[in-house]
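Reply to dn_fold:

You asked what the input looked like. This is it:
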Amino acid sequence: MDEIKLHQFREKLELLGYSKRVIKDYPEYVRLFFAWLEKEENIAAVADILPEHITGYHAYLQYTKLKDGNYLTTATIRTRLQTVKTFYTVMHQEKLIENDYAPLIIMPKRRRSLPKHVPSEKEMQTLLDSIRPTEPITIRDRAMLELLYATGIRNQELRELVVENLDLTEKTLFVHGKGAKDRIVPVGEWVVPYLREYLEAARPLLVNPRTPSDWLFLSKTGRIITNGNMGDLIRKYAERAGIASLITPHSFRHACATHLLKGGADIRYVQELLGHADLSATQIYTKIDISFLKKAHKRFHPRERQEPDGD
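and this is what came back:
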């Protein structure tokens, strides 16, 4: 295949100031593309490549198994296609090839990774019950973490709540979400007593008279609770309760979503609750633990209940 074009590509990457890694790796990845074209499509020159050849290469990357039986990861596929995309962009801009197919190359979406650890319902109960609301800080912590689990709001969204965001009469919370996407979420009946106790008995004692603040949940000094503070206090209660140390503030969001879906909630309701713009972001929670679905399937599906035929 076209070794001259590969050499020109490498030279242009150097002249344009690309990193040493890109200069080293990208021409080699394009060489793999060329080798596939020559073997599978009998294409020996860059000028003969058509858009359908690139589509075919994408399909090859997507569905060809490796020697160990696994498929290429999405990250690897994206890298392979990105090198071809860069090749067309650079070479066309430098007037070294006639056609620019870069705009036609669509990157596959990254697969959303599943949370490493989602606390079970029992773990969440154990953790929350380990917080005895007996003084201002523990009253605050119990109310705050109950609310975090009840609503599935993000750590930052919780910390940046102001008092007026909470409506105990309507049992709702107004949340300023990511990307300026605001939403109203239900608080949960059981959380209301914890919140009321916090607002009436604990928060007034945490307010700093010299610098009064509207933040709903206040630190010991009357300021906003930092991300580090939040992580530390959750780790403290998790360790005290004997729960896995992998629990983080975001684990509460994962737990809320997973437990709602497990309980039978519609996925679009959970999407709205979490403030996901894209349903695919919510769908990761349907993949975390389907053991309860497997049990139900085995118990209720008519084909599962049939006795196997004898010989």
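The mean pLDDT is 83.
Hope that clears it up.
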